[in-house]
Amino acid sequence: MRARYVVLPVALAALLAAAAAPAQDTAITGFVDASYFQDLAAKGGEFGLDQAEIDIEHRSGDRTMVRADLEWVKNGETFDAQVEQAFVRYTCPADWTLTFGRFNAPIGFEQIDPNEMYQFSHALVYTYGQPTNLTGIMVDRPIGERVTVTAFGVNGWDQNAESNALKTWGGRLDYTHGVVDGGIVAITGKEGGGAAPEFDRTVLDADLACTPEGWVLGADLNHGKVTEAGGAEATWFGFMVMAHRDFNSWLGLTMRADYLDDQDGLLFGPVGGEVQKRNAIAIAPTFVLDEGFGALVELRIDKSDQDAFLDSDGLPTDTSTSVAFEMTYAF
What we know:
Blueprint: H1 8-19, E1 26-39, E2 46-59, E3 64-75, E4 78-91, E5 97-104, H2 124-129, E6 133-143, E7 147-154, E8 168-177, E9 180-193, E10 196-210, E11 215-228, E12 233-246, E13 251-262, E14 276-290, E15 293-304, E16 309-310, E17 316-317, E18 319-330
Antiparallel strand pairs: 1-2, 1-18, 2-3, 3-4, 4-5, 5-6, 6-7, 7-8, 8-9, 9-10, 10-11, 11-12, 12-13, 13-14, 14-15, 15-18, 16-17
Protein backbone atom coordinates (compact mmCIF):
# COMPACT_ATOMS: atom_id res chain seq x y z
CA MET A 1 0.00 0.00 0.00
CA ARG A 2 1.37 3.40 -0.90
CA ALA A 3 2.01 5.70 2.07
CA ARG A 4 -0.01 8.90 2.50
CA TYR A 5 1.50 11.15 5.15
CA VAL A 6 1.13 14.83 5.96
CA VAL A 7 1.53 17.06 9.04
CA LEU A 8 -1.64 16.43 11.01
CA PRO A 9 -1.96 19.78 12.87
CA VAL A 10 -2.29 21.66 9.58
CA ALA A 11 -5.27 19.55 8.56
CA LEU A 12 -6.83 19.87 12.02
CA ALA A 13 -6.63 23.64 11.74
CA ALA A 14 -8.33 23.50 8.35
CA LEU A 15 -11.05 21.22 9.70
CA LEU A 16 -11.72 23.49 12.70
CA ALA A 17 -11.83 26.57 10.47
CA ALA A 18 -14.30 24.89 8.13
CA ALA A 19 -16.45 23.60 10.98
CA ALA A 20 -16.67 27.10 12.47
CA ALA A 21 -17.95 28.55 9.17
CA PRO A 22 -21.65 29.06 8.39
CA ALA A 23 -23.38 25.69 8.23
CA GLN A 24 -25.15 26.39 4.94
CA ASP A 25 -21.76 26.65 3.20
CA THR A 26 -20.21 23.56 4.75
CA ALA A 27 -20.56 19.89 3.83
CA ILE A 28 -19.43 17.11 6.18
CA THR A 29 -19.17 13.63 4.70
CA GLY A 30 -17.21 10.46 5.40
CA PHE A 31 -17.31 6.69 5.63
CA VAL A 32 -16.44 3.64 7.71
CA ASP A 33 -14.96 0.58 5.97
CA ALA A 34 -14.64 -2.90 7.51
CA SER A 35 -13.73 -6.25 5.97
CA TYR A 36 -12.82 -9.90 6.32
CA PHE A 37 -9.83 -10.96 4.20
CA GLN A 38 -8.19 -14.33 3.64
CA ASP A 39 -5.34 -15.47 1.49
CA LEU A 40 -6.42 -19.03 0.70
CA ALA A 41 -2.85 -20.26 1.15
CA ALA A 42 -2.91 -19.05 4.77
CA LYS A 43 -4.42 -20.99 7.68
CA GLY A 44 -6.97 -18.33 8.59
CA GLY A 45 -8.42 -14.98 7.65
CA GLU A 46 -8.70 -11.70 9.51
CA PHE A 47 -11.49 -9.29 10.39
CA GLY A 48 -10.51 -5.66 10.25
CA LEU A 49 -11.72 -2.12 10.60
CA ASP A 50 -9.75 -0.95 7.60
CA GLN A 51 -10.46 2.75 7.46
CA ALA A 52 -12.58 5.57 8.86
CA GLU A 53 -12.66 9.00 7.25
CA ILE A 54 -14.22 12.41 7.81
CA ASP A 55 -14.23 14.98 4.99
CA ILE A 56 -15.10 18.65 5.50
CA GLU A 57 -15.59 21.02 2.59
CA HIS A 58 -16.44 24.70 2.99
CA ARG A 59 -17.24 27.28 0.31
CA SER A 60 -17.00 30.91 1.30
CA GLY A 61 -18.35 32.02 -2.07
CA ASP A 62 -18.78 30.95 -5.66
CA ARG A 63 -15.03 30.95 -6.29
CA THR A 64 -13.31 29.86 -3.08
CA MET A 65 -13.32 26.45 -1.40
CA VAL A 66 -11.29 24.70 1.31
CA ARG A 67 -11.32 20.95 1.92
CA ALA A 68 -9.66 18.56 4.36
CA ASP A 69 -10.01 14.75 4.45
CA LEU A 70 -8.92 13.17 7.74
CA GLU A 71 -8.55 9.40 7.82
CA TRP A 72 -7.65 6.64 10.24
CA VAL A 73 -6.10 3.70 8.37
CA LYS A 74 -5.40 0.26 9.81
CA ASN A 75 -1.70 -0.43 10.28
CA GLY A 76 -1.30 -3.82 11.95
CA GLU A 77 -2.77 -3.63 15.44
CA THR A 78 -2.96 0.18 15.46
CA PHE A 79 -4.29 2.99 13.25
CA ASP A 80 -2.39 5.73 11.45
CA ALA A 81 -4.12 9.11 11.76
CA GLN A 82 -3.23 11.01 8.62
CA VAL A 83 -4.51 13.38 5.99
CA GLU A 84 -5.50 12.07 2.60
CA GLN A 85 -5.85 15.55 1.15
CA ALA A 86 -6.16 19.13 2.39
CA PHE A 87 -6.21 22.08 0.02
CA VAL A 88 -7.61 25.48 -0.86
CA ARG A 89 -9.11 26.07 -4.27
CA TYR A 90 -9.85 29.30 -6.12
CA THR A 91 -11.54 29.80 -9.49
CA CYS A 92 -10.66 33.12 -11.13
CA PRO A 93 -13.03 35.03 -13.45
CA ALA A 94 -11.23 33.65 -16.51
CA ASP A 95 -12.25 30.09 -15.43
CA TRP A 96 -8.75 29.11 -14.33
CA THR A 97 -8.93 27.01 -11.16
CA LEU A 98 -6.00 27.01 -8.72
CA THR A 99 -5.59 24.18 -6.18
CA PHE A 100 -2.92 24.57 -3.51
CA GLY A 101 -2.02 21.99 -0.84
CA ARG A 102 -2.32 18.21 -0.89
CA PHE A 103 -4.74 16.59 -3.33
CA ASN A 104 -5.59 13.26 -4.95
CA ALA A 105 -3.39 12.65 -7.98
CA PRO A 106 -5.34 13.29 -11.23
CA ILE A 107 -4.27 10.00 -12.80
CA GLY A 108 -5.89 6.65 -13.51
CA PHE A 109 -9.39 5.22 -13.48
CA GLU A 110 -9.59 3.76 -9.97
CA GLN A 111 -10.34 5.94 -6.96
CA ILE A 112 -8.46 5.92 -3.67
CA ASP A 113 -11.33 5.43 -1.19
CA PRO A 114 -13.33 2.20 -0.75
CA ASN A 115 -16.70 3.96 -0.94
CA GLU A 116 -15.79 4.96 -4.52
CA MET A 117 -14.61 1.50 -5.55
CA TYR A 118 -16.48 -1.40 -7.16
CA GLN A 119 -14.29 -4.11 -5.62
CA PHE A 120 -12.19 -4.66 -2.50
CA SER A 121 -8.70 -4.51 -4.01
CA HIS A 122 -6.96 -2.12 -6.38
CA ALA A 123 -5.52 -3.09 -9.74
CA LEU A 124 -1.81 -3.72 -10.25
CA VAL A 125 -1.33 -0.54 -12.29
CA TYR A 126 -2.86 1.52 -9.47
CA THR A 127 -0.72 -0.10 -6.77
CA TYR A 128 2.61 -0.03 -8.62
CA GLY A 129 2.36 2.48 -11.46
CA GLN A 130 0.60 5.60 -10.14
CA PRO A 131 0.98 8.14 -7.33
CA THR A 132 -1.86 8.40 -4.82
CA ASN A 133 -1.59 11.95 -3.47
CA LEU A 134 0.47 14.96 -4.51
CA THR A 135 1.53 18.03 -2.51
CA GLY A 136 2.01 21.26 -4.43
CA ILE A 137 0.06 23.41 -6.85
CA MET A 138 -2.35 22.46 -9.64
CA VAL A 139 -4.13 24.62 -12.21
CA ASP A 140 -6.81 23.57 -14.64
CA ARG A 141 -8.98 25.26 -17.22
CA PRO A 142 -11.83 24.08 -19.45
CA ILE A 143 -11.39 24.59 -23.19
CA GLY A 144 -14.87 24.59 -24.65
CA GLU A 145 -17.48 22.23 -23.27
CA ARG A 146 -15.61 18.92 -23.57
CA VAL A 147 -11.89 19.45 -22.94
CA THR A 148 -10.08 20.37 -19.71
CA VAL A 149 -6.33 21.01 -19.42
CA THR A 150 -4.55 20.49 -16.09
CA ALA A 151 -0.94 21.19 -15.06
CA PHE A 152 0.74 20.61 -11.69
CA GLY A 153 4.06 21.02 -9.90
CA VAL A 154 4.55 18.92 -6.75
CA ASN A 155 7.16 17.58 -4.34
CA GLY A 156 7.06 14.03 -5.69
CA TRP A 157 5.01 10.85 -5.50
CA ASP A 158 3.14 10.81 -2.16
CA GLN A 159 5.68 13.16 -0.59
CA ASN A 160 4.49 15.94 1.69
CA ALA A 161 8.11 17.05 2.30
CA GLU A 162 10.76 17.51 -0.38
CA SER A 163 14.21 15.99 0.04
CA ASN A 164 15.84 17.53 -3.04
CA ALA A 165 15.75 20.89 -4.81
CA LEU A 166 13.89 19.64 -7.88
CA LYS A 167 10.15 19.21 -8.33
CA THR A 168 7.95 16.73 -10.14
CA TRP A 169 5.83 18.12 -12.96
CA GLY A 170 2.82 16.77 -14.78
CA GLY A 171 -0.24 17.48 -16.83
CA ARG A 172 -3.54 15.98 -17.85
CA LEU A 173 -5.70 16.41 -20.93
CA ASP A 174 -9.27 15.35 -20.19
CA TYR A 175 -12.12 14.82 -22.66
CA THR A 176 -15.79 14.43 -21.67
CA HIS A 177 -18.72 13.79 -23.97
CA GLY A 178 -21.99 12.34 -22.75
CA VAL A 179 -21.31 9.12 -20.85
CA VAL A 180 -17.63 9.03 -21.90
CA ASP A 181 -14.78 10.56 -19.88
CA GLY A 182 -11.14 9.93 -20.73
CA GLY A 183 -7.77 11.46 -20.02
CA ILE A 184 -4.07 11.31 -20.84
CA VAL A 185 -1.55 12.08 -18.08
CA ALA A 186 2.22 12.59 -18.05
CA ILE A 187 4.19 12.98 -14.81
CA THR A 188 7.99 13.28 -14.54
CA GLY A 189 10.58 14.40 -12.04
CA LYS A 190 13.68 13.68 -10.02
CA GLU A 191 12.96 12.00 -6.69
CA GLY A 192 14.91 10.57 -3.79
CA GLY A 193 17.64 12.69 -2.23
CA GLY A 194 18.87 12.98 1.31
CA ALA A 195 19.83 9.53 2.52
CA ALA A 196 18.16 7.89 -0.50
CA PRO A 197 19.76 7.84 -3.96
CA GLU A 198 18.22 10.18 -6.51
CA PHE A 199 16.42 8.86 -9.59
CA ASP A 200 14.30 10.19 -12.44
CA ARG A 201 10.79 8.75 -12.85
CA THR A 202 8.44 9.30 -15.78
CA VAL A 203 4.98 7.80 -16.25
CA LEU A 204 2.50 8.06 -19.11
CA ASP A 205 -1.04 6.97 -18.33
CA ALA A 206 -4.33 6.92 -20.23
CA ASP A 207 -7.67 6.21 -18.56
CA LEU A 208 -11.21 5.86 -19.86
CA ALA A 209 -14.60 5.66 -18.15
CA CYS A 210 -17.95 5.01 -19.81
CA THR A 211 -21.25 4.98 -17.91
CA PRO A 212 -24.18 3.87 -20.07
CA GLU A 213 -27.37 3.18 -18.10
CA GLY A 214 -26.79 0.40 -15.59
CA TRP A 215 -23.10 0.04 -16.44
CA VAL A 216 -19.70 1.39 -15.37
CA LEU A 217 -16.90 0.53 -17.81
CA GLY A 218 -13.30 1.49 -17.14
CA ALA A 219 -9.84 1.04 -18.60
CA ASP A 220 -6.31 2.15 -17.77
CA LEU A 221 -3.05 1.97 -19.75
CA ASN A 222 0.21 2.66 -17.91
CA HIS A 223 3.89 2.89 -18.95
CA GLY A 224 6.73 4.02 -16.70
CA LYS A 225 10.49 4.41 -16.65
CA VAL A 226 12.96 5.00 -13.83
CA THR A 227 16.52 6.17 -14.53
CA GLU A 228 19.03 5.86 -11.70
CA ALA A 229 21.89 8.29 -11.09
CA GLY A 230 24.36 5.90 -12.74
CA GLY A 231 22.26 5.73 -15.90
CA ALA A 232 20.63 2.32 -15.37
CA GLU A 233 17.03 2.23 -16.60
CA ALA A 234 14.01 0.18 -15.54
CA THR A 235 10.67 0.20 -17.36
CA TRP A 236 7.22 -1.32 -16.94
CA PHE A 237 3.99 -1.60 -18.90
CA GLY A 238 0.52 -2.50 -17.70
CA PHE A 239 -3.20 -2.18 -18.30
CA MET A 240 -6.53 -2.71 -16.57
CA VAL A 241 -10.10 -3.23 -17.82
CA MET A 242 -13.18 -3.30 -15.61
CA ALA A 243 -16.93 -3.72 -16.06
CA HIS A 244 -19.61 -3.22 -13.42
CA ARG A 245 -23.27 -4.01 -14.07
CA ASP A 246 -26.21 -3.07 -11.85
CA PHE A 247 -28.96 -5.64 -12.30
CA ASN A 248 -31.45 -3.83 -10.07
CA SER A 249 -31.51 -1.36 -7.17
CA TRP A 250 -29.65 -3.68 -4.79
CA LEU A 251 -27.53 -6.17 -6.79
CA GLY A 252 -24.55 -5.67 -9.08
CA LEU A 253 -21.48 -7.49 -10.36
CA THR A 254 -17.93 -6.28 -11.04
CA MET A 255 -15.31 -8.03 -13.15
CA ARG A 256 -11.77 -6.69 -13.53
CA ALA A 257 -8.69 -7.97 -15.33
CA ASP A 258 -5.26 -6.38 -15.25
CA TYR A 259 -1.70 -7.07 -16.34
CA LEU A 260 1.71 -5.64 -15.42
CA ASP A 261 5.03 -6.45 -17.10
CA ASP A 262 7.86 -5.46 -14.74
CA GLN A 263 10.40 -5.54 -17.51
CA ASP A 264 13.47 -4.89 -15.35
CA GLY A 265 12.41 -6.17 -11.95
CA LEU A 266 11.91 -2.76 -10.32
CA LEU A 267 8.31 -3.09 -9.07
CA PHE A 268 7.93 -6.72 -8.00
CA GLY A 269 11.58 -7.62 -7.57
CA PRO A 270 13.19 -10.53 -9.40
CA VAL A 271 12.53 -14.17 -8.49
CA GLY A 272 15.59 -16.38 -8.84
CA GLY A 273 17.17 -13.64 -10.93
CA GLU A 274 14.21 -13.53 -13.33
CA VAL A 275 11.87 -10.56 -13.80
CA GLN A 276 8.12 -11.00 -13.53
CA LYS A 277 4.98 -10.53 -15.53
CA ARG A 278 1.80 -10.64 -13.44
CA ASN A 279 -1.88 -10.65 -14.19
CA ALA A 280 -4.86 -10.59 -11.86
CA ILE A 281 -8.59 -11.25 -12.13
CA ALA A 282 -11.12 -9.99 -9.59
CA ILE A 283 -14.83 -10.88 -9.46
CA ALA A 284 -17.07 -9.08 -6.98
CA PRO A 285 -20.84 -9.27 -6.48
CA THR A 286 -22.01 -5.99 -4.90
CA PHE A 287 -25.02 -5.28 -2.70
CA VAL A 288 -26.83 -2.08 -1.73
CA LEU A 289 -28.20 -2.69 1.77
CA ASP A 290 -29.51 0.81 2.48
CA GLU A 291 -28.85 4.39 1.45
CA GLY A 292 -25.08 4.85 1.70
CA PHE A 293 -24.59 1.30 2.99
CA GLY A 294 -23.05 -1.30 0.70
CA ALA A 295 -21.34 -4.68 0.79
CA LEU A 296 -19.37 -6.86 -1.61
CA VAL A 297 -17.61 -10.19 -1.85
CA GLU A 298 -14.40 -10.38 -3.89
CA LEU A 299 -12.57 -13.36 -5.31
CA ARG A 300 -9.13 -12.41 -6.64
CA ILE A 301 -6.58 -14.58 -8.44
CA ASP A 302 -3.05 -13.27 -9.06
CA LYS A 303 -0.71 -15.16 -11.38
CA SER A 304 2.97 -14.62 -12.14
CA ASP A 305 5.20 -16.16 -14.81
CA GLN A 306 7.59 -16.95 -11.93
CA ASP A 307 7.05 -18.77 -8.62
CA ALA A 308 6.53 -15.51 -6.74
CA PHE A 309 4.02 -16.72 -4.12
CA LEU A 310 3.78 -19.44 -1.49
CA ASP A 311 1.17 -22.20 -1.36
CA SER A 312 -0.50 -23.62 1.78
CA ASP A 313 2.56 -25.82 2.41
CA GLY A 314 4.94 -22.86 2.20
CA LEU A 315 6.31 -23.93 -1.17
CA PRO A 316 6.84 -21.54 -4.11
CA THR A 317 3.98 -21.31 -6.60
CA ASP A 318 2.97 -19.01 -9.43
CA THR A 319 -0.60 -18.34 -8.23
CA SER A 320 -2.15 -16.55 -5.26
CA THR A 321 -5.89 -16.63 -4.50
CA SER A 322 -7.71 -14.49 -1.96
CA VAL A 323 -11.27 -13.79 -0.86
CA ALA A 324 -12.68 -10.74 0.90
CA PHE A 325 -15.98 -9.58 2.33
CA GLU A 326 -16.35 -5.82 2.75
CA MET A 327 -19.01 -3.49 4.17
CA THR A 328 -18.83 0.28 3.74
CA TYR A 329 -21.14 2.95 5.10
CA ALA A 330 -20.81 6.42 3.59
CA PHE A 331 -22.64 9.52 4.80
